[in-house]
């Protein structure tokens, strides 16, 4: 019986192949996810290990590491057949088996049987012809070590993946990422983070955490991008709660209302979003009201 860890490594290699041209289209993601169902039952942690490779381009170094991991784990004919089957399903997902696909499968079998043919090299070459032109990608480190940040603090994870140096300690960068995410949730209530809201968020990070303009802007830019793609409010509020004092959270509530009023007037929906965040931060109704009354009647639409 093939163990789950081996299946996950094969799945990651399939994702790496699809990233060969530096892009992963929604249609390709759908194909990959449909194939993942053939792996059997996957829990949330398993899916996270796969999705972290779907999140951004996979480097040549990562593909090589995944190839080695799969190759070194093969110890039975069943595992060999499984690799061949899954890669065949991926490469023929368009319903057409061409000359290159057949040649690739032959090379794959040769590698699995102990030949020196490079699995990833052949896979990447073929996938480039199937899903697009080759583009260079930036080398990344092993992603599994960042699973916790990928799940709990996507903004901090993205800062690391994009090589953005905030000149902050990891603990401080994580806390500010949670804060920026919560600011983004309020700004994005209307599904649009406008220029005034972005400027207000940068100003808040600068004034409340003594950040330089460039660092504050970098965090807000990443937070805005991640917010529009969808962030988990529970994880953001829990993360910020775990890393702050009650007094800090009370002051931060005022910041959330500043974001809500950045366009001139806080909407009912934005105020309710802040109320929801206050509950997640384990603040009282009195704390919520104290922050709310820092806005003028005009800003509150009264």
Automatic annotation (TrEMBL):
Domain Co-chaperone DjlA N-terminal: 179-292
Matches recorded under InterPro entries: DjlA_N, TerB-like
Domain of life: Bacteria
Name listed for the protein in its UniProt record: Tellurite resistance protein
Organism: Anaerohalosphaera lusitana
Lineage of source species: Bacteria, Pseudomonadati, Planctomycetota, Phycisphaerae, Sedimentisphaerales
């Amino acid at each position: 019986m093939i163990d789950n860890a081996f299946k996950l490594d094969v799945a990651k290699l399939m994702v790496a192949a699809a990233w060969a041209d530096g892009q992963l289209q929604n249609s390709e993601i759908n194909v990959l996810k449909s194939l993942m169902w053939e792996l059997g039952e996957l829990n949330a942690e398993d899916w996270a290990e796969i999705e972290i490779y779907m999140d951004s381009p996979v480097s040549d170094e990562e593909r090589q590491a995944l190839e080695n991991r799969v190759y070194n784990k093969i110890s039975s004919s069943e595992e060999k057949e499984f690799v061949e089957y899954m890669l065949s399903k991926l490469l023929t997902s368009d319903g057409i088996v061409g000359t290159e696909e057949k040649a690739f499968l032959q090379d794959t079998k040769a590698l699995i049987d102990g030949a020196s043919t490079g699995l990833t090299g052949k896979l990447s070459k073929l996938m480039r012809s199937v899903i697009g032109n080759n583009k260079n990608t930036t080398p990344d480190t092993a992603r599994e070590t960042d699973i916790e940040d990928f799940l709990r603090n996507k903004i901090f994870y993205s800062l690391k993946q994009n090589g953005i140096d905030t000149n902050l300690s990891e603990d401080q960068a994580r806390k500010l990422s949670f804060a920026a995410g919560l600011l983004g949730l309020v700004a994005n209530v209307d599904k649009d983070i406008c220029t005034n809201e972005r400027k207000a968020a940068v100003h808040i990070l600068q004034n409340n955490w003594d950040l330089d303009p460039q660092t504050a802007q970098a965090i807000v830019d990443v937070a805005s991008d991640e917010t529009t793609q969808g962030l988990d409010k529970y994880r953001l509020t829990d993360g910020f709660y775990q890393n702050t004092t009650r007094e800090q959270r009370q002051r931060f509530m005022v910041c959330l209302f500043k974001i809500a009023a950045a366009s001139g007037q806080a909407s009912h929906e934005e105020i309710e979003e802040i109320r929801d965040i206050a509950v997640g931060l384990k603040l009282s109704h009195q704390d919520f009201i104290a922050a709310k009354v820092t806005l003028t009647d005009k800003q509150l639409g009264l």
